[in-house]
Amino acid sequence: MVLSAVFSLGSGDHAARLRVMKPLPMLLVAVLVAGALPGEEPPPMPDDKVVVLEAMKIVGTPIISFAIDIRIYQDPDTKKVDRIFITKVYPRTDAEAAELQVGDEILRINGVPVKDYEAIVSVKSPLGKLLLNRFPGSPIRLDVLTRKTEKVTLRAQRPTLNDRLR
C-alpha cells in the first residue's frame, strides 16, 4: 500500500511543501530511526568549534487553487509570462462544466492580459496572489482560447495548503 504524506517546511513566503510517496512502514521506520532513542544523548561538541552546513534549497511545487493545472511559458527577454496553457482539467468542476480542455490557452486573468504578469508564481507575486491559496468559492475570470474565445468564471475548489496540513 502506498500513502502520500505532505510536509510543510518554513513559514510564510518561504514555506515549501513536499509530497512524499512511500510505503507507510518505510516512512515510519525512517521517522523512528531519525529521532533520538530514549535515554541516548548526542555526543558532546567542543565549545570552540562551529559547525557550518552547506546551503540547502528546498523546492516545492505550488498547487493552483482552481480545478485546472497550468503550464506557464516565460518570455526570456522580458521575464514576463509569454503564454499559459491548461495541462489538466479536474472532473466534476466548474472547469469541466465550462468545457475547458488540455491545450486551451488562457489569454487574460481577471481582465488583465497574461503577458502583463511577471512569470513568477509565489505567494506574494501578482500571479501567485490570483492563483494560489484562494478560499473555496473564490471566483477568477479567465479569457480562454478554445475552439473560440470564451470568458469563464471558476470558483476555487481545491483546499488551501493550510487546509491540507490540518
Description:
- Strands 3, 4, 5, 6, 7 and 8 form a six-stranded antiparallel beta sheet that branches. Strands 1-2 form a two-stranded antiparallel sheet.
- The chain is built from four helices and eight strands, in the order ββαββαββαββα.
- 16% of the residues lie in helices and 32% in strands.
- With 166 residues, it is of the alpha+beta class.
- It folds into two domains: 1-38 and 51-61, no CATH class; 68-161, Roll (Pdz3 Domain).
- Mean pLDDT is 74; it is low at 1-36.
- The chain has helices spanning 24-34, 94-97, 126-131, 161-165, and strands spanning 2-9, 16-23, 68-74, 81-89, 105-109, 112-113, 139-145, 149-155.
- The radius of gyration is 21 Å and the shape is elongated.
Question: What key attributes describe this structure?
Answer:
single chain; 166 residues; alpha+beta; Pdz3 Domain; 2 domains; two-stranded antiparallel sheet; 4 helices; 8 strands; elongated; disordered N terminus
What assembly state would you assign to the polypeptide chains in this entry?
Answer: single chain
Q: Classify the secondary structure makeup into a structural class.
A: alpha+beta
Average pLDDT number: 74
Which geometry do the CA atoms define?
elongated
Major beta-sheet overview: 6 strands, antiparallel
What CATH architecture label of the largest domain applies? Roll
Query: DSSP helix count?
Result: 4
Query: What's the order of the H and E elements?
Result: EEHEEHEEHEEH
Straight-line N-to-C gap: 23 Å
Radius of gyration: 21 Å
Counted beta strands: 8
* Count of the separate structural domains: 2
**CATH top level class name of the largest domain:** Mainly Beta
